[in-house]
Amino acid sequence: MAARAGLIEQKQGATSARLDSLGPVADKGWTATARKAALDRVVQQGLPHARDEYWKFTKPTGLVVADVTPAAVFTGDEVQVFDSVDRVKLVFVDGVFDAAASDDPALAGVKIERLAEATSDIHWAQGLYGTLEANGQDPVARPLAALNTAYATDGVLIHATGKAEKPVSLIYRHESETSDAILHHVIKLDAKAELTVLENGPAAARFNKVMEVDIADGAAFHHVRAQGRDHERQAATHIFARLGTESTFKSFTLTANGRMTRNECVIELTGDDAVAHVAGACVGDGDFHHDDTIFITHDAVNCESRQVFKKVLRNGATGVFQGKILVKEGAQKTDGYQISQSLLLDGDSQFLAKPELEIYADDVACSHGSTSGAIDEDALFYLRSRGVPEGRATDLLTLAFLAEAVQEIEDEALSDEILGKVEAWLDRRRG
Amino acid sequence: MGAPDGADEKDEKMLEIKNLQVKLEDEDKQILKGVDLTVEAGKVHAIMGPNGSGKSTLSYVLSGKDGYEVTGGEATLDGDDLLDMEAEERAAAGLFLAFQYPVEIPGVGNMTFLRTAVNAQRKARGEDEMSATDFLKFVREKAKDLKIDADMLKRPVNVGFSGGEKKRNEILQMAVLQPRMCILDETDSGLDVDAMKLVSEGVNALRDAGRGFLVITHYQRLLDHIKPDVVHIMADGRIIKTGGPELALEVEQNGYADLLAEAE
């Protein structure tokens, strides 16, 4: 009991320190009620602690402490991902919107506003802001997401009423070594609307981002993200998605570098015949910790969910996968699939996986698999015996390993763009 | 270049193996116990022998596979010490091993694999890379001879290939890489008669005065299609007998027992 009391004290202490540093939440405008409720959740839950079961594999300290750990700004002159894609660019620098660097957000079929500028008392996003996040707090607490709802300084509010002409591209630049950014996006797709959202860039020294996505019947949402290369940055991101009947949600994330990344994705399939795919590929080297935590709830009939995660780790890098499929009572004909794999390029790296299935319906097909392995020595020798030097051969096999996750991106141009990015990274590593 | 009348002593020595002794790296088991063998440019040498005689080990050691320890002897290609080179350097120097069990590489397209290999070798030799269009044309031509269609070129390396397709793919790689010294490790295993004919034609098309072959096989039948100049019998880690093509026929008729007894 004494130990538990001590833990609660530690959590309360850390939570208070962080909340004190952030000050009071905004009490005006249409988000005020949601922010206050979120703050109450944070106080009640306490911020994550290393002893929390849900943070067993990922030490949350850096994401929680009041003072942000400085992160050097990466100064490579590489071509940014998605540069070849025709898109509407919205740029945030250390969490602050940069109008001059951004495109005009006027885009057919889509209404885009900034959270910081949506100051009216009534707003279409009022019923969504913090709502999907709050729904996603059960059965597992996600206090960093609640903290985000309470304190987000900006973000975008996107309302897709039809088929968007171009992808909306959120670009997160990092220029300050001590920036501590909190962005919150709300995306609403009306029935049969279609929208692709792209995200890229390191964002800040520490980045807390929430994206709530409400997908109405027959709508399709695509999301492709490349998390920036700044080596020392830390990030905690959450996606909360709610899917209506016959709707589609597909999300892919590429991560290379970053000292600490925790990407949570919480999906609720609430309408029949909906499809949700979440995939990720990451390349970690050295002081690198990457955590994919996925929670998919099937609460309707004949829905499909798919999780495909691949990690390549070396020089002591750590990869974590916590993936859950919850099939509620009555969610018959569920088709759930989950695979998490790691390629460990040396003995110092580690991959920690916790696949979970919890099923309360009797007519479902769910499968999961998790593997961890070294590079295939036979394949490596085969390539070398044809004259391909060891480094290049290892890269080819690494790329092939990651390609399976990258191929989850439906749009071929975007998929090629991401594969090209991975290839360039591998190339540069080799020098 | 080799003398036209087959005067062996005047031929250009290409692959020279002298008293090669090899054991498994992590086991105290000697596999090759002193192999002597010389392959001249323009010649086809065959090695036959019972299971476990060390034939495949010889091919792996020559091509640079990990897991073996050379405890004595030497192996050179055109006078250069093979055993001192990395596997990729041996390939760039002109050595090629057609695998008994070609490896499947999911996610790597056959064409990407071929182009990467060719350009890596060219780079190692200080030559310019081949342009994508020139390369495509070049490969398609070679593939056509081996009845390898566009689909097989696009698919991941050897993944889902039949036994015959895998072996044809090995010969395609050989045709594209144009090595000086080709080692074929039981290329006939798993092939039906038609596939064996196709593969053999592919190999025969590559026979020329500047290229040497070492064909490892259990059976004489491959040697009906790829006619050897010299046949060696290997047993218990040594070459126990060397002769002409008639030696292969003798094995076919009488098995290895007599030869083994003779060598005792």
What does this structure look like?
The complex is a heterodimer of chains A (431) and B (264). Chain A is built from eight helices and 19 strands. In chain A, a hairpin with a 2-residue loop joins strand 1 and strand 2. Chain A has a ten-stranded mixed β-sheet, covered by helices on one side. Chain A has a nine-stranded mixed β-sheet with strand order 3-4-6-8-10-12-14-16-18. By secondary structure, chain A is α/β, with parallel strands linked by helices. Chain B has a single domain (8-44, 64-191, 200-229), classed as 3-Layer(aba) Sandwich (Rossmann fold). Helices cover 38% and strands 28% of the residues of chain B. Chain B has helices at 55-63, 87-92, 110-124, 132-145, 150-154, 163-177, 193-206, 221-225, 246-254, 257-263; strands at residues 13-24, 30-40, 44-48, 68-77, 80-81, 95-98, 105-109, 156-157, 181-185, 212-217, 230-235, 238-243. In chain B, the strands form three sheets. Chain B has a six-stranded mixed β-sheet, sandwiched between helices. The longest helix of chain B has 15 residues, at 110-124. Chains A and B meet through helix 6 and helix 7 of A and helix 2, strand 7, helix 3 and strand 8 of B.
